[in-house]
């Protein structure tokens, strides 16, 4: 610790490298291992059992401290009694014995206190935080997707109308709060629980001493204590209720904030920032109301416990003087007051301890509810590698509690009997919403198995390391999974592909080639070392999907599940992936279960086919058998919207077979099973390391989180001061603090006058006052002191609530109006840390520090106390100087070091939340690859990184308290010596006053320093909020004059000389392009990945401001209008469907703007509901039929829409967008995950119902846009063609013609163009 303080003294700021490792028993891996042993027991039992040895040491030191607590007071009484009775000119031997006894007893007491708090704060608190965070994360790795819980414990007797989504145990916001707030509260209480042990001991000893001093009066004091106690129970009950509601509102707010951050692109595209902001602020207002109630309870508690020792003192002195008729001497008065000062310190902590206890109980219940929820292990998937499939199995998405019945609206796949061939390719097809993804996820055990059996291998957590020559690379019991919604970590592309496996150059190169990633790496400046950002945001949809596919191919898995990986790529790339990857040499002898709408591409090489419809297996069997029976032709016909393209597919199959045979011939004869990776058979990259060896230091997209260095800047103080209130607020705060402290000093001063009144009575009888006079004034002073103390607290609570409201609103406004680049480069966990843990600190902890002015007044007390004390006892300037220098020096080092520890503590929390959020998003992929152990180890390392500065911060407090208290003991000893030297000038009353001041002097200065440091540490949260208050903002939301209400009236779009780059230091993405789209025209935009298609849409919505050129919509330059006006008048349907937790209704009509019939009409437009005619003809359903979940608008949608398919999510987002009825609609791969037949229906609907709108469609599927009016072809940021589909496909030299040829669907596309041409001719 001394070395750390030296570093803090000589350095501007400390970093993680300056910290030592925490003790082995406190490391997360040790704590977690100890904690999980008793997983079947209650949470409280597990905490007790895992930390039993710490609690025993804590208990021993607590009892020892309690027994020593009043020993110095005994020596003080004897010292004052000696001064009062000592004759003049007699030796002071007994006086020296008393003060020496005080010195030794104080030394022992403070060393014992230091050791007690080391075990309480440094050891126990750190251990509890580590083990709870680790266990919550471990539970999230085992948690079943879509789990619903009855939150009866929390919702009982609660009339609040919270969203249904609050009952989702798996909500990211709730679990984030469990890790950020609840674990911290339990850890805080673990420090203070011994108060319930030492408080009764100290109270008993204190009453015993008081009985010795005051006799029967102390019994009356004890009775007063008993009478007051029941009031606490009443306040406690209300506080507990308030805490339950407060935590639910906090969960709801953080969960909403998480959903906003996850869906920020869509929110900005729809110009919903203000509406979501108001939604968050409404929840925040409810949270602050509950916080205000909690503050009122705290104020009541403080009133009770501040009044308790004072009332007891009044009753005691009244009985002692008035009833018993005794004289109040200086030794009795100041000894009893010293005892009560010590008791006041003990009892003053009780309100906080009780509150922390109630908060800890609430938090334990919340965490226990989560830990007891359903797990993935409860699914009985038989991991027999000799068989893959289903045996009379029925499965559904959601898992309910044991007492819950499955909803009648639940989509259930019943009586599945399928056996996939091992080592072969199987395809699963069917229309959107037929249950394809549910089928695959059931194989992985991610769904609810209602009955029957599922057979599928499970990847072990400890995979054998491959041999040097890779002869054992492919393992029979390993599984890989390519999710429909790609999961990528915030790391380099290479790291995402290898996914924890060793980097094998030859195999890696072969995988990159097979997955068509070579050209992408050439385009990317850092090649495969490019950092992909959170959720792969720097890559296109196709690039993300191919990286996910590459990870599966590179893996050691023999069994690979691929969920529609071809949907996000263009036709040419899909064909390449099918020929060279899925049916290529790297996949030989590997089991592949492929969900796809590209049935024609896959059918030729598939050994097994499953066709689904409405959750039932319509057709399944061996490909050859199905061909001979004609079933395969029916599947093809259905997949191609009823058109028979068998001849075309046969031709494609022949081409596929020819290329496959050529690939086989090129294979190296000694290639091992499952991976032809000989470098000589593959075209080399530009270098040996995957096109990235020349990149020494790849650019870092997401920078490490920074933190301030040195003292907290004045602007941070000012921000918090002004947020609390202006001149009047601070004037009243200063007035209340001044008068409150003055009244406390007056108590002791008046006791001095009272205790000396007996001498005055004997010398000047005519000026003496009665006992009632002294007693009544003493009562008046103490009552005023109590009222002022409580008023001060209430006033501060009021100011802190105002500050919390203002700062939160300002932060929310800045974040929600930040440009997309901010969200690209800032992890969600880092932002959530501000809205979660930092605001919990601002709301609660910072207020309890009683802010800066309390500290300044404590410092003022120190100066005043020191001045009067030094003056009275005539301590030499030498001692004054020495002690002042020592206090200032120690306090300065402590404050600087603890401030840095707090900053490191805050900074190291964000990686924990980021890693957790990343895990929740990709949990199915992580479990499929057997990577849960690796992710758990990573989390344990991050928990240790966070616990290190926290442990050091707690240990620093012990370091300071021991040294300050020992200095205080020395000062008291020196004061006693000087009193004995000056007995001729100091009477017993003045000696008692001086010694009582001396005994609290070190505590006052220590708490001055501690409060100052705690306040600065609390200001770290303000500092972090202020950092985000300075982030760049988007262009103005509204610019006057605003465009006409009818704009855009025609839908004409004109692009002139547009030059776009993502940042000034990067190369342009669009190179001075110009084109014009006429009103009501339907235009398709096509091109390879990286050609600039999405950049056009981003420029149109002004997410990227052009470096040169302009965009005009109906003659208005878009740069001259506010982005809110621009985005709200346009409609975009993005590729990634973003849904929020809630219901179908709340996702369609997020802000309750439409009538119910409009919502149903929109669902019918996108064919999620049948048309009115079809609905009437299909009203009767058999028991085995699935109810259409979209018929009930109140059907629950899980977070991210995970309980419906990707295609259904896209259609629901399409239905939501079409409700706007904008004049310009931009579709960015909006139907990529939808089957061809549904896509065709959607396109026909758009052409029919939006005939007066301008439609721009970015598509990989050429069939989606082949009958549009014109096609815009992009290549490397340039417009190379812009003409009608007929003219482009008729020109064999055109790029579009080549794209059609490469798609494998040239005849289909040409037939569609000719059909449209003929229809137009006939109409003409």
From TrEMBL:
Localization terms from the record: Membrane
Broad class of the protein's primary localization: membrane
Pfam families: ABC_membrane, ABC_tran
Regions of compositional bias (Polar residues) in chain numbering: 677-690
GO CC entries: fungal-type vacuole membrane
Membrane-spanning ranges: 54-79, 94-113, 189-210, 216-235, 292-320, 727-746, 777-798, 852-871, 877-895, 962-983
InterPro entries per the UniProt record, alphabetical: AAA+_ATPase, ABC1_TM_dom, ABC1_TM_sf, ABC_transporter-like_ATP-bd, ABC_transporter-like_CS, ABC_transporter_C-like, P-loop_NTPase
SUPFAM superfamilies linked to this entry: ABC transporter transmembrane region, P-loop containing nucleoside triphosphate hydrolases
PANTHER family referenced in this protein's UniProt entry, alphabetically: ABC TRANSPORTER ATP-BINDING PROTEIN_PERMEASE VMR1-RELATED, ATP-BINDING CASSETTE SUB-FAMILY C
Protein name: P-loop containing nucleoside triphosphate hydrolase protein
Species per Swiss-Prot/TrEMBL record: Rhizophagus irregularis
């Amino acid at each position: 610790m001394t070395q750390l303080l030296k570093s803090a003294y000589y350095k501007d700021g400390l970093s993680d490298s300056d910290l030592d490792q925490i003790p082995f028993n406190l490391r997360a891996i040790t704590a977690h291992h100890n904690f999980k042993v008793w997983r079947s027991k209650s949470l409280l039992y597990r905490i007790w059992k895992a930390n039993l040895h710490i609690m025993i040491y804590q208990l021993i030191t607590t009892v020892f401290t309690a027994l020593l607590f009043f020993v110095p007071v005994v020596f003080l009484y004897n010292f004052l009694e000696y001064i009062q009775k000592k004759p003049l000119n007699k030796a002071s031997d007994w006086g020296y014995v008393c003060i020496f006894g005080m010195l030794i007893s104080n030394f022992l007491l403070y060393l014992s206190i230091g050791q007690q708090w080391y075990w309480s704060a440094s050891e126990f608190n750190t251990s509890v935080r580590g083990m709870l965070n680790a266990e919550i994360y471990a539970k999230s790795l085992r948690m079943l997707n879509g789990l619903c819980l009855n939150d009866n414990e929390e919702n009982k007797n609660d009339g609040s109308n919270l969203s249904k989504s609050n009952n989702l145990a798996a909500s990211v916001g709730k679990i984030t709060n469990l890790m950020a707030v609840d674990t911290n509260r339990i850890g805080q209480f673990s420090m203070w629980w011994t108060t319930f042990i030492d408080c009764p001991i100290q109270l008993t000893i204190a009453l015993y001493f008081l009985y010795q001093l005051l006799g029967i009066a102390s019994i009356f004091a004890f009775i007063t204590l008993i009478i007051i106690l029941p009031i606490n129970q009443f306040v406690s009950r209300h506080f507990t209720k308030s805490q339950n509601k407060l935590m639910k509102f906090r969960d709801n707010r953080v969960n909403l904030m998480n959903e906003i951050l996850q869906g920020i692109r869509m929110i900005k595209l729809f110009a919903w920032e203000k509406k979501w902001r108001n939604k968050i602020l409404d929840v925040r207002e409810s949270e602050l109301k509950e916080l205000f109630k909690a503050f009122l309870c705290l104020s009541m508690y403080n009133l009770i416990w501040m009044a308790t020792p004072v009332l007891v003192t009044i009753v005691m002195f009244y009985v002692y003087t008035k009833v018993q008729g005794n004289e109040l001497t200086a030794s009795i008065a100041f000894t009893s007051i010293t005892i009560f000062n010590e008791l006041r310190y003990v009892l003053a902590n009780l309100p906080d301890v009780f509150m922390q206890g109630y908060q800890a109980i609430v938090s334990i219940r919340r965490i226990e509810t989560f830990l007891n929820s359903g797990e993935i292990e409860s699914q009985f998937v038989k991991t027999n590698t000799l068989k893959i499939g289903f045996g009379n199995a029925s499965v559904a998405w959601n898992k309910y509690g044991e007492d819950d019945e499955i909803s009648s609206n639940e989509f259930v796949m019943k009586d599945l009997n399928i056996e996939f061939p091992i080592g072969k390719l199987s395809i699963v097809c069917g229309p959107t919403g037929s249950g394809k993804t549910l089928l695959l996820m059931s194989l992985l055990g991610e769904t609810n198995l209602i009955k029957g059996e599922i057979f599928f291998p499970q990847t072990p957590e400890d995979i054998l390391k491959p041999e040097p020559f890779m002869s054992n690379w492919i393992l029979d019991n390993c599984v890989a999974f390519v999710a429909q919604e790609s999961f990528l970590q915030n790391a380099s592309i290479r790291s995402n592909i290898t996914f924890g496996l060793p980097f094998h150059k030859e195999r890696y190169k072969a995988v990159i080639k097979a997955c068509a990633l070579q050209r992408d790496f050439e385009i990317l400046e850092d090649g495969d070392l490019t950092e992909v950002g959170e959720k792969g945001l720097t890559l296109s949809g196709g690039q993300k999907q191919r990286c996910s596919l590459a990870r599966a191919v590179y893996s050691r898995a023999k069994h690979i599940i691929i969920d529609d990986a071809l949907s996000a790529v263009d036709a040419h790339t899909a064909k390449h992936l099918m020929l060279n990857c899925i049916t290529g040499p790297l996949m030989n002898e590997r089991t592949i279960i492929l969900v796809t709408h590209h049935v024609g591409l896959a059918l030729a090489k598939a050994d097994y086919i499953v066709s689904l419809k409405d959750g039932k297996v319509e057709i399944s069997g061996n490909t050859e058998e199905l061909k001979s029976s004609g079933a395969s032709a029916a599947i093809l016909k259905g997949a191609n919207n009823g058109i028979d393209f068998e001849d075309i597919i046969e031709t494609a199959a022949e081409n596929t077979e020819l290329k496959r045979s050529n690939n086989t011939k090129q294979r190296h004869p000694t290639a091992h099973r499952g991976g032809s990776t000989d470098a000589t058979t593959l075209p080399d990259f530009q270098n040996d390391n995957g096109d990235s060896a020349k990149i020494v230091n790849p650019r870092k997209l997401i920078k490490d989180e920074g933190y301030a260095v040195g003292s907290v800047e004045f602007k941070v103080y000012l921000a918090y001061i002004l947020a609390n209130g202006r001149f009047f607020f601070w004037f009243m705060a200063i007035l209340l603090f001044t008068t409150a402290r003055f009244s406390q000093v007056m108590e002791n001063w008046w006791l001095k006058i009272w205790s000396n009144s007996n001498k005055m009575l004997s010398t000047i009888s005519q000026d003496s006052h009665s006992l009632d006079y002294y007693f009544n004034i003493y009562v008046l002073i103490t009552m005023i002191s109590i009222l002022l103390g409580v008023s001060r607290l209430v006033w501060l609570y009021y100011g802190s609530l105002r500050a919390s409201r203002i700062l939160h609103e300002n932060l929310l406004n800045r974040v929600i109006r930040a440009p997309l680049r901010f969200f690209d480069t800032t992890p969600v966990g880092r932002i959530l840390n501000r809205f979660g843990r930092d605001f919990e600190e601002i709301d609660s902890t910072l207020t309890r520090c009683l802010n800066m002015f309390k500290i300044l007044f404590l410092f003022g007390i120190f100066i005043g106390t020191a001045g009067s004390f030094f003056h009275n006892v005539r301590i030499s300037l030498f001692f004054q100087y020495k002690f002042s220098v020592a206090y200032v020096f120690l306090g300065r080092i402590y404050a600087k070091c603890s401030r840095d520890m707090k900053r490191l503590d805050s900074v190291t929390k964000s990686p924990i939340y980021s890693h957790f959020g990343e895990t929740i998003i990709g949990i199915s992929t992580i479990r499929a690859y057997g990577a849960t152990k690796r992710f758990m180890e990573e989390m344990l390392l991050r928990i240790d990184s966070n616990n290190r500065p926290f442990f050091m911060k707690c240990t620093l407090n012990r370091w300071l308290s021991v040294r300050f208290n020992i200095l205080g003991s020395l000062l008291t000893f020196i004061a006693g010596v000087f009193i004995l030297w000056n007995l001729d000038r100091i009477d017993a009353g003045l000696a008692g006053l001086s010694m009582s001041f001396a005994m609290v002097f070190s505590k006052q200065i220590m708490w001055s320093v501690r409060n100052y440091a705690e306040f600065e540490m609390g200001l770290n949260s303000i500092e972090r909020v202020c950092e985000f208050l300075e982030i760049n903002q988007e262009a103005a939301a509204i610019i006057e004059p605003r465009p006409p209400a009818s704009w855009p009236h025609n839908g004409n779009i004109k692009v002139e000389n547009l030059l776009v780059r993502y940042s000034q230091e990067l190369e342009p993405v669009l190179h001075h392009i110009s084109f014009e789209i006429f009103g009501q025209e339907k235009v398709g935009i096509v091109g390879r990945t990286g050609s600039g298609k999405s950049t056009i849409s981003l420029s149109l919505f002004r997410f990227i401001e052009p470096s040169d050129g302009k965009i005009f919509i109906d003659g208005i330059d878009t740069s001259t209008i506010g982005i809110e006006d621009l985005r709200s008048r346009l409609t975009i349907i993005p590729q990634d469907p973003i849904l929020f937790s809630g219901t179908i209704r709340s996702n369609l009509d997020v802000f309750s703007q439409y009538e119910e019939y409009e919502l149903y009409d929109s669902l019918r437009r996108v064919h999620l509901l049948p048309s009115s005619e079809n609905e009437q003809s299909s009203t009767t359903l058999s028991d085995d039929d699935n109810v259409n979940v979209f018929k009930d608008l109140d059907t629950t949608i899980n977070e991210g829409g995970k309980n419906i398919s990707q295609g259904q999510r896209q259609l629901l987002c399409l239905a939501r967008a079409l409700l706007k009825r904008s004049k310009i609609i931009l579709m960015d791969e909006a139907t990529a995950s939808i089957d061809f037949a549904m896509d065709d229906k959607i396109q026909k609907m758009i052409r029919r119902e939006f005939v007066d709108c301008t439609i721009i469609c970015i598509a990989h599927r050429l069939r989606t846009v082949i009958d549009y009016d014109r096609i815009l072809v992009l290549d490397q940021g340039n417009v190379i063609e812009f003409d009608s589909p007929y003219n482009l496909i008729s020109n064999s030299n055109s790029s579009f013609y080549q794209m059609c040829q490469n798609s494998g669907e040239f005849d289909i596309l040409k037939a569609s163009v000719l059909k449209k041409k003929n229809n137009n001719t006939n109409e003409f």
